Amino acid sequence: MGKGKLIVFSAPSGSGKTTIVQHLLNETNLALEFSISATSRLPRGEEVDGKDYYFLSINEFKNKINNDEFLEFEEVYTDNFYGTLKSEVERIWNTGKAVIFDIDVIGGLNIEKQFPDETLSIFVKPPNKTELEKRLRGRGTETEEKIQMRLAKADEELAVAPEFDAIITNDNLELAKQEAFQLVSKFLK
Asked: How many whole angstroms separate alpha carbon 125 and alpha carbon 175?
């Protein structure tokens, strides 16, 4: 694979990382393009295949694993895979842009391990567990069982936050967006 810059945003579900990443993608003076992840889960809400995710069947996902088509992948929950296709990163690098990821914690750390000099890894932390639960419930897209799974996983994810290059606490979204912009701008110079 050729090499360009990689910007990884990871966080527990409900921390606001997707909102921050979308904000950075709208900043015209940053040459960023979003890496669309592949997943074996079903679309939620208004999600669109090829825009939000590449939605694959479990068998399609496993075939791509066997063919070494992923830069990284993770079975986040049983039969619920997420991963970054090598072809997606190459496609973005070939446009001369930096790749920005909205990715689970393990996937983010895996990318940084493979490309330590080319990667800026940023962990987005919720202000506290109560607020995280409130945000997850506010989505109105998940069952009680899924919410409880995500809250349990958040404890594990928060424990590895110090392994990231930077941590942004999202207790004020506008300040979190500004902090993210400053970190990314400095890294891309």
From this structure: 13
Report the side by side order of strands in the sheet with 38-39: 54-55, 38-39, 80-85, 70-77
Pairing between β-strand 38-39 and β-strand 54-55 as defined by DSSP bridges: parallel
pTM of the complete model: 0.85
92-109 pLDDT tens trace: 999 999 999 998 898 899
- Cα–Cα distance measured from residue 148 to residue 5, given in angstroms and rounded to the nearest whole number: 35
- Residues 59-78 have pLDDT tens digits of 999 999 999 999 999 887 78
Burial class (CB in 10 A: 0-12, 13-18, 19+), 80: middle
Q: Which amino acid is at 18?
A: T
Termini Cα distance of the chain = 22
Instruction: Report the distance separating Cα 28 and Cα 40, nearest Å.
Output: 32
Domain 6-188 has CATH 3.40.50.300: yes
Q: 62: how many CB neighbours lie within 10 A of its CB?
A: 15
CA distance 188 to 118: 10
The string of DSSP letters for 127-168 reads: S-HHHHHHHHHHH--S-HHHHHHHHHHHHHHHHTGGGSSEEE
| Rg over CA atoms, the chain | 16
The residue among 68, 92, 74, 73 whose CA lies nearest residue 84 is 73
- Show me where the domains of the chain are located: 6-188
Q: Report yes or no: 179 and 41 within 8 Å, Cβ to Cβ.
A: no
